[in-house]
Amino acid sequence: MPASTRVDFYILETTRPGGRLHFACRLTEKAYSQGNAVYAHTESEQDASRLDDLLWTFRQGSFVPHERQTGGEPAAPVSIGTPTASKRDGEVLINLCNNVPEFATGFLRIAEIVDGSESSKAAGRQRFRQYREMGLEPETHTIS
To answer: Which of 18, 27, 71, 125 gives a 20 to 30 Å CA spacing to 10?
Structure first.
């Protein structure tokens, strides 16, 4: 594990459908604009497709070059994958799954997004505990 793996939890007040994906787009755009390679890890092919589409349309004038992870090294600075097609290491991991991927500590930075729904909060608490058990000290940020 990189000695400097940082874990940030972004706690959204919203429970609106798609809120996590919209915030993931904002994080992706910011990380990309700072010169980081980003891997967004989604729960399913459906979520990966929604995020792929949303990255083209979430904000007027935004351009985030991205591609779906299909195996091998991605050519675009932002890639989107699933548990069956995932990138194993890199700079920024945006985890949109309900569990901590086994390869999470291969990234320098991990971003977790938790919305206001009870199920999301419960899964987020579990991931927070997992990171602590791995010897990492997550930071939390409340987003209104």
So the answer is: 71
- Give the integer Cα–Cα distance in Å for 71 and 102: 17
Is-contact 5 105, C-beta < 8 A?
yes
Please name the CATH architecture into which domain 6-143 falls.
3-Layer(aba) Sandwich (3.40)
Q: Give the model confidence (pLDDT) of 94-123 as tens digits.
A: 999 999 999 999 999 999 999 999 999 999
The string of pLDDT tens digits covering residues 35-65 is 999 999 999 999 999 999 999 988 888 889 9
What is the rounded CA–CA span in Å between residue 71 and residue 62? 27
- Percentage helix, strand, coil for the chain under 3-state DSSP, each rounded to 5: 35, 25, 40
